[in-house]
Design goal:
alpha+beta, binds zinc ion, about 375 residues, 11 helices, five-stranded mixed sheet, about 15% strand, 2 domains
Length: about 375
């Protein structure tokens, strides 16, 4: 899926525009636009560096390709880090993107071979146009993610989708434009869902050459400014807490931007609930959702005054490991999240724990799970 996604970039279907032109129509501030132009140019330079380094290495007796990939990745990461924080999601993205682009470029350069002039000309694959197109695309993917994090930190509660309004905008992106939805909800785009334009993790097919942007709103409906701050002062927060106010209650969602890669089925979940975890009485039936950005997510509703109302849902996402133990771990984790919330209504110990930090809650949960694995003689290393 990842490689196919990157390969789309490599099809010169559209005329490549200079960055100033490419970002011009986007519904963003001049400061945001300037940052995107700079980021895309720096990333394009990194691509040209890759083409040059590969050309040199191809002519060596023993090409050291791992070294080329490492240097490329390092430079790419340095640029990203100057314009956005590098959290686990971005780190993972950089690894997959640079690996995929490296493989494709090397493949086409090797196919083109070294010409009579001693150089390698792989046409589009080593062109400035390709470097520019990749830089532009990646700048939006990276910076839209950064702006989502900034919006969360600034207390945004809602968002809407904005497109550039020309004839290149996909119909699926026109359809979601102007729709205002709660921050933690997804836009239904094409065949999938997205948290924001260029949400590569959830819907890579809808990211390429997309110049749409998100507009974020606070509780009063005022636009939350993003892309204004000094990146060097940003704090890396991989896990964010989103508070959503809706009617008489607030949803507290464990907002984890890292998704695993292993899908599971409801049948596998059911099987574990009937066997390993049969002594646990889940308040709601856990169901698989490939769309959430964490291994599991429990949605707890609260009354306006703060006490827990109910467990709305327990969703199980893609797992980080392809083992039964990993799924047991996730299910138990979500069970305990729900259990702590429900017990907080009547038990002072759980009330204090529930209202403490994520770190304390997760320490309690992880200790509990480890102990339970030990007791049952299951291998925790596989979880
Ligand atoms: Zn778009």
């Amino acid at each position: 899926m990842i490689i196919n996604g990157f390969d789309e970039l490599n099809t010169p279907k559209v005329q490549v525009e200079e960055p100033e032109e490419y970002f011009k129509k986007m519904d963003i501030s001049p400061k945001q636009r300037k940052e995107r132009v700079e980021t895309s140019k720096e990333l394009a330079d990194v691509m040209l560096f890759l083409f040059a380094l590969l050309a040199i290495e191809m002519q060596a007796n023993k090409p050291n390709y791992p070294l080329v990939l490492r240097s490329f990745k390092q430079r790419f990461r340095d640029v990203v880090n100057r314009h956005s924080r590098v959290d686990d999601y971005v780190e993972n993205y950089i690894n997959e993107f640079t690996g995929g682009v490296f493989d494709t470029t090397r493949k086409y350069m090797e196919a083109a071979g070294v010409g009579m002039n001693g150089r390698t000309d792989a046409g589009w694959w080593t062109s400035t146009d390709r470097a520019t197109a990749i830089g532009e695309n990646e700048a939006n993917i990276i910076l839209n993610h950064e702006e989502l994090l900034e919006a969360i930190e600034a207390g945004a509660v809602a968002k809407s989708w904005s497109n550039v309004g020309d004839n290149k905008v996909r119909n699926s992106h026109k359809e979601v434009t102007k729709e205002k939805i709660p921050l933690a909800e997804f836009f239904a785009v094409g065949k999938g869902i997205m948290l924001y334009p260029c949400d590569w993790d959830n819907n890579p097919d809808e990211c390429f050459n997309c110049r749409c942007s998100a507009i974020y709103y606070d509780e009063k409906g005022n636009v939350v400014k993003v892309g204004q701050g000094d990146r060097s002062t940003k704090v890396n927060k991989a896990e964010q807490k989103v508070q959503l106010t809706e009617n008489d209650y607030t949803d507290t969602i464990r907002y984890n931007l890292i998704a695993g890669q292993y899908k599971v089925t409801n049948a596998q979940i059911e099987d574990i609930l009937q066997n390993e975890l049969k002594e646990f009485d889940f308040p709601v039936k856990p169901v698989y959702s490939g769309q959430i950005k964490s291994a599991g997510k429990t949605i707890i509703t609260r009354y306006r005054w703060g006490t827990v109302k109910e467990i709305k849902s327990i969703q199980i996402g893609r797992q980080y490991k392809d083992t039964r133990e990993a799924l047991i771990d996730t299910l138990l984790h979500e069970y305990l999240e729900a259990d702590i919330a429900l017990k907080s209504k009547s038990d002072p110990f759980f009330e204090e724990l529930f209202n403490s930090t994520d770190e304390k809650i997760h320490k309690y949960i992880n200790d509990y799970i480890k102990e339970y694995f030990d007791k049952k003689g299951w291998n925790y290393d596989l979880a």
